[in-house]
Amino acid sequence: MIVKDSSQIIVGGRKALLINPPIYDTQYWAYWSQPHGLLKIATWLKQTHGYTDLRLIDCLATNEKRKVKHRLIDRVARGNVSKIRRAFGMSIEELESHLREHASGENFRPDEIWITSIMTYWWESTRDVIQAIERAFDGNVPRILVGGVYPTLYPEHADKKLRLGTRIPDERLLIVEGEIDTVAANSWLDLSLYNDKIYKWQPKYTIITGSRGCPFNCAYCAQLKLNGMSRKVRSRSPEDIAAEIEQKYHDYGIREFAFYEDNLLFNREDFLNRLAEIRKRNLKIEIYAPEGIEPRLVEYELMSEMRQAGFQRVHLALETIDNDIARKWNRRQATIEKFDEAVEILTKVGFRVGSQDMNAFVIFGIPDEDLQAVMNTALYASKRVGSVVPMLFTPVPGSILFEQHRNYLESQTNADGENWDLHDFNGKLLPFLEYNQRKNPALQASDYLQIENLMMHLNASKIFNKRFDITSSSLVGKTFRRVMSENITV
Amino acid sequence: MTKLLLINPPAYDYRLEWAKWHQPLGLLQIGAMLRSRGFDIKLLDCLNFSSRQIRKKKLGTHEISGYNFHKWRFGLPEETVRDTLCKLQRDWYPDMVLVSSLNSVWWEGVRDTVSLVKKYFPDTQIFCGGAYPTAYPEHANQNIPISANNFFRGAVAKASSFQPDISLYDKTPLQAGILYYNYANLGNVPEPRPVDEIVREIIDKARLGVTNFGFFDEEILPQHHDELCNLLDHIAKEKLKNRRISLMGNISPKLITPDVAKRLRPAYVREIFFRCNIDFNNPKFITYQDQYNDYDIATRTLEKFQFRPRSGEVTAMLVAGFPYEDIADLTERTITLAHIVGSVIVVPYQYSPGQESHPLITKALNQNGHFTPEMWNSKLFPLARLSGKKIEEYIELLRLTRLLNSKYRSVTFDFLGDSLTANLFRQSINSEGYTLPQTSEGTAKSVELTEALHDR
């Protein structure tokens, strides 16, 4: 059953389990792993609805090295490569044993179980968690509410597929579409839930969501649907954000904060006020924005304030050097000239090129892409910024590119003859390989891996604080270019 | 019983490549010889790193053309050395001390070690040998505070027939240098040691705990191809589980025939660094002897016998830093060797007096009037600089090599390969596709639109 408003969701419960499932993927960057939506829900349940017993089972809680354990689950053949898929985080078996504590009475019996589900291509582990709940509670399951990015972007899929293999009645398994409640969305994260015997290590980092929404609709992004088709950027007050940071600093020893926002710099004045509020509190912290910032919004005063407030590095959405391609992706607002200007400004502020102070996202694996443009973009990013972050494109339900290619994606079949499902759309599994092979029959899966590899090679370590410069005017640089040019294969 | 303390001093250098392989074989051979004659021997090897971490202490900075070369003392911390000498002073006062030197540019480490030894053992005779007093006898006389008669120059011929005695270490090091040749007959073409002698040495050292063996010879000569095959066959017969052998820059690609290649992995060889053979015969040029085809054949042959391509298991060494060399040619060779072999190491040419001479080297030396031994450190590319080359070019070459050798998912990228990606890369370089497109009309329209959006 798909639900949208809080009157259908809050029905007088007092005790809840909150679960962040493990995930199945070919790789997982756990550095900022934290179920921030669920942790806000926890605060909202306690403070607004008087919940008395809450417990978080974060299957992706990191260790002291900010990593999670993993094990092999299967291999997926894609063209001429074979990708290993792993289960990251707590095993379903271990999760089930914790659930049994609550089913048996050893620990409180929950009225509800809230599950967050993030990437659409991670849906399978959410399904497996629900099956584990049914087994643990021997059919007498509490209400289960599944929320997050996946159920919001594709509620019909969640409503149908998450029930598979269970006998849970409709009304006991609720798919929460969209934002439950503004108060919930603006709540502070409840990190006290990590004071639990299942966690050997308390996180020393946290995620702050200061705003939601973005006025743009880039073709590869689903934020518009995620934000209920609203282009409005809604921000929390700067004082509230700074106060949350201060609370996390003093009460939990947090020193690293990541802003996860759809368009961090859009409300310029608001953001400047936020930084000022943070600086007022004289906290020695480091701030990051791993999802990136819009280059066209980079300006000297803003960047200077960011640096002084504690920003350690900047991730820039470059995506492509080609303005025509950017326009095709509905990114008219993003030109390479603006990007170049942004790098210039950041350099003046003190962010250093080639040091990971600045990083550029380069997207590839897109349908009908021009691979030469991808290469040009990667080399430009390496030269101009010094650190390239390759991003293989995942078609996300709700995004323009997904809707344009929905028929294609849903008609593809795997080796067993079954139609592709959401997990097959994972960018790392190259969902548009066969599509792009239509125009370029020589294209292979290994070519995408090679492109990704090359981008990582360009980030090779430095000597005397600099990497090799492909545009260098030195004899070495000129010779390198000559040798490369003499070996063009037509 | 005469007590003799053998010391391998710390290294004073800008970086310490192959740190775990600086084993003083000569010193260990002398130790073996004198032990057999009834000496009571102890060893203090300051370059024996028991942990992965190389211990170092900054000494200073040398600036060249705006580049700061930081100099470090690599080795056991001075406090540890003092503690050791203090204990020996109390419990085992040596009658003699022999301080070796693996490298003439590290002479300051020898000097400081001798000074320290004199403090703790003022009555003891101190001797000094190895590369430094051999290359710079006068400088050593003037700077090392020992009697002029107490220097050993050159190899100790009688010790050459002894195996390096690693039991002199308190804790067996994980790596051991092995010599393929018998160097007792100095001046003649060396003869390979008997196969059973080498194999016995490997087995004995493996039993003591050594896991990594490296052949330390300057070169394994192509004329000893059959003897090498025979040795590999014998090693392969031994059960040396979890042991590995490295061929460290002493094997020419020409020596990698199918007969040799097929025997390498069974004989636990896991790492091959191709020797860079230099031709000093042409008075106008210093050139490389091996052709690209030699490397190509060798690399493909090794791949057939399970050496993984582009994984770092096979590497070409390339000596650079000769005076008057052509930087463009050197760069092209670096790129091509990386393409063919998969990895390439640029080895700065280490000049030492008494080595092979060449008119170009003599010409460059004539520009000098002031270099002391440590300034001949190859990492400063002294000969090349004397001939007018810029250090920046060599630093850029090292950066290029870092890119060529960088691994992702355990392999290097083949920039000259046939893959689509490599071709796209070369196209991008050729067309300068990475530069900003020049579309002023497009730029103006974009600016208009973005201003409008910002105002919304």
Please explain how this structure is put together.
The complex is a heterodimer of chains A (490) and B (456). Chain A has helices at 6-9, 36-47, 92-104, 123-136, 149-153, 155-161, 182-185, 223-226, 238-252, 268-280, 300-309, 323-328, 336-349, 371-384, 400-404, 406-411, 433-439, 445-457, 475-485, and strands spanning 2-3, 15-20, 23-25, 53-58, 70-78, 81-88, 112-116, 143-147, 173-176, 205-208, 211-212, 234-235, 256-259, 286-288, 314-319, 358-364, 388-392. Chain A has 490 residues and is of the alpha/beta class. In chain A, helix 10 (268-280) links the parallel strand 13 (256-259) and strand 14 (286-288). In chain A, helix 9 runs parallel beside helix 10 (268-280). The radius of gyration of chain A is 23 Å and the shape is globular. The model of chain A has no long low-confidence stretch (mean pLDDT 93). Chain B has 456 residues and is an alpha/beta fold. Chain B is 37% helix and 19% strand. A six-stranded parallel beta sheet of chain B has the order 8-11-12-13-16-17. In chain B, strands 3-1-6-7 form a four-stranded parallel beta sheet, with helices on both faces. A three-stranded antiparallel beta sheet of chain B has the order 2-5-4. In chain B, helix 9 packs parallel to helix 10. The longest helix of chain B is centred in the C-terminal third of the chain and has 16 residues, at 440-455. The radius of gyration of chain B is 25 Å and the shape is globular. The model of chain B is unreliable at 439-456 (pLDDT under 50). The interface between A and B is large, with 64 and 53 residues.
